[in-house]
Write the structure tokens for this entry.
Amino acid sequence: MTRIVAALILAGCTGGGGDTAEERDYGRTQTTDLGSWTVTIAPDPDPVPPVDLFALDVTIPGAEGLFVDVDADMPSHNHGMNTEPVVTEVGGGAFRVDGMQFHMTGDWRVTVAIDDGNTYERAFLWIDCCEPIQ
Ligand SMILES: [Cu+2]
């Protein structure tokens, strides 16, 4: 039974389903959907270790004191992470995200949400787990 489950998970990781790789942008700096913010992520350690916990350093110029939420999922598999990351403001538009975990290899989508009280904007950053991003 364990072997069957493992085979299914591996098949799911390498299969496509839904969005295609061509639509994914692995750049570490992305603009939010309404264009107000520029979000840059830096994994720690880098590259992201598969299965192990890691952290993200997120930089959003001008977002001092704003509500920032970070999550990640695998849209082609319809699942998120098994952990709930904790965002701590470091200052100067920098945020530390602890408790990230990519529990399987494949394409993960990191969502950074910023709420300034007027608009709720999101930036999407893809990470191919678990290889270094150029
Ligand atoms: Cu998955």
Q: What stands out?
A: The chain has a mean pLDDT of 86. Residues 73 and 116 are 24 Å apart (CA to CA). The pocket of copper (II) ion is lined by residues 12-13, 74, 77, 79, 104, 106 (CB under 6 Å).
